[in-house]
Write a structure and sequence with these properties.
The chain has helices at 35-52, 73-83; strands at 3-6, 13-18, 21-27, 60-67, 91-96, 105-112. It has 113 residues and is an alpha+beta fold. The radius of gyration is 13 Å and the shape is globular.
Length: 113
Protein backbone atom coordinates (compact mmCIF):
# COMPACT_ATOMS: atom_id res chain seq x y z
CA UNK A 1 0.00 0.00 0.00
CA UNK A 2 1.24 3.48 -0.86
CA UNK A 3 0.54 6.22 1.68
CA UNK A 4 0.71 9.81 0.49
CA UNK A 5 0.91 12.83 2.80
CA UNK A 6 -0.56 15.74 0.84
CA UNK A 7 1.06 19.14 0.51
CA UNK A 8 -0.66 22.52 0.37
CA UNK A 9 -0.69 22.14 -3.42
CA UNK A 10 -3.44 19.68 -4.41
CA UNK A 11 -1.42 18.01 -7.20
CA UNK A 12 1.64 17.21 -5.04
CA UNK A 13 2.50 15.06 -2.06
CA UNK A 14 4.81 16.27 0.69
CA UNK A 15 5.87 12.68 1.43
CA UNK A 16 5.19 9.21 0.08
CA UNK A 17 5.60 6.03 2.13
CA UNK A 18 5.82 2.54 0.60
CA UNK A 19 7.38 -0.75 1.68
CA UNK A 20 9.17 0.75 4.68
CA UNK A 21 10.66 3.64 2.68
CA UNK A 22 9.65 7.30 2.81
CA UNK A 23 10.51 9.91 0.18
CA UNK A 24 10.05 13.58 0.98
CA UNK A 25 10.98 16.97 -0.43
CA UNK A 26 11.37 20.48 0.98
CA UNK A 27 12.12 24.02 -0.03
CA UNK A 28 12.49 26.82 2.50
CA UNK A 29 9.33 28.69 3.36
CA UNK A 30 11.24 31.91 4.14
CA UNK A 31 12.74 33.29 0.94
CA UNK A 32 15.68 35.04 2.59
CA UNK A 33 18.74 35.71 0.38
CA UNK A 34 20.99 33.47 2.49
CA UNK A 35 21.60 29.93 1.21
CA UNK A 36 22.65 28.96 4.74
CA UNK A 37 19.31 30.11 6.21
CA UNK A 38 17.24 28.57 3.42
CA UNK A 39 19.12 25.29 3.90
CA UNK A 40 18.43 25.33 7.65
CA UNK A 41 14.74 26.00 6.98
CA UNK A 42 14.48 23.24 4.36
CA UNK A 43 16.22 20.74 6.65
CA UNK A 44 13.78 21.60 9.46
CA UNK A 45 10.92 20.84 7.06
CA UNK A 46 12.59 17.55 6.07
CA UNK A 47 12.84 16.65 9.76
CA UNK A 48 9.13 17.42 10.33
CA UNK A 49 8.10 15.50 7.20
CA UNK A 50 10.11 12.47 8.30
CA UNK A 51 8.58 12.54 11.78
CA UNK A 52 5.09 12.76 10.29
CA UNK A 53 5.89 9.69 8.19
CA UNK A 54 7.23 7.76 11.20
CA UNK A 55 10.92 8.22 10.39
CA UNK A 56 13.88 10.32 11.58
CA UNK A 57 16.95 11.99 10.10
CA UNK A 58 19.06 9.12 11.49
CA UNK A 59 17.26 6.84 9.01
CA UNK A 60 18.01 8.86 5.86
CA UNK A 61 19.48 6.68 3.14
CA UNK A 62 20.00 9.26 0.39
CA UNK A 63 19.74 13.01 -0.04
CA UNK A 64 19.61 14.87 -3.34
CA UNK A 65 20.20 18.59 -3.01
CA UNK A 66 19.63 21.17 -5.74
CA UNK A 67 21.12 24.64 -5.27
CA UNK A 68 20.99 27.66 -7.54
CA UNK A 69 24.63 28.71 -7.06
CA UNK A 70 27.23 25.98 -6.60
CA UNK A 71 29.77 28.64 -5.62
CA UNK A 72 27.76 28.98 -2.37
CA UNK A 73 27.91 25.25 -1.66
CA UNK A 74 30.09 25.84 1.44
CA UNK A 75 27.14 27.69 3.02
CA UNK A 76 24.85 24.74 2.31
CA UNK A 77 27.51 22.36 3.65
CA UNK A 78 27.76 24.38 6.87
CA UNK A 79 24.01 24.04 7.51
CA UNK A 80 24.05 20.35 6.51
CA UNK A 81 27.01 19.57 8.78
CA UNK A 82 25.28 21.23 11.74
CA UNK A 83 22.10 19.21 11.10
CA UNK A 84 23.09 15.74 9.89
CA UNK A 85 23.20 12.76 12.26
CA UNK A 86 26.95 12.08 12.21
CA UNK A 87 26.50 8.53 13.48
CA UNK A 88 24.28 7.71 10.46
CA UNK A 89 25.66 9.73 7.56
CA UNK A 90 23.56 9.29 4.40
CA UNK A 91 24.69 9.24 0.79
CA UNK A 92 24.34 12.79 -0.54
CA UNK A 93 24.60 14.49 -3.92
CA UNK A 94 24.46 18.20 -4.69
CA UNK A 95 23.67 19.64 -8.11
CA UNK A 96 23.50 23.19 -9.41
CA UNK A 97 20.05 23.87 -10.85
CA UNK A 98 17.67 26.62 -11.85
CA UNK A 99 14.92 26.81 -9.23
CA UNK A 100 11.67 28.76 -9.21
CA UNK A 101 11.25 32.22 -7.74
CA UNK A 102 13.43 32.99 -4.74
CA UNK A 103 14.16 29.33 -3.94
CA UNK A 104 17.89 28.82 -3.47
CA UNK A 105 17.68 25.16 -2.46
CA UNK A 106 15.48 22.09 -2.82
CA UNK A 107 16.17 18.91 -0.85
CA UNK A 108 14.83 15.42 -1.58
CA UNK A 109 15.49 12.56 0.83
CA UNK A 110 14.72 8.87 0.98
CA UNK A 111 14.68 7.23 4.41
CA UNK A 112 13.71 4.03 6.14
CA UNK A 113 10.54 4.14 8.23
Amino acid sequence: MIRRIPSKIPTRSRSVIHAGIVSTVAVAERKVPSLYEQTRDALAIIERNLAEAGSHKSKILTAMIYITDVMQKPEMNRAWDEWVDRSNIPMRACVGAGLEGDDLIEIIVTAAV
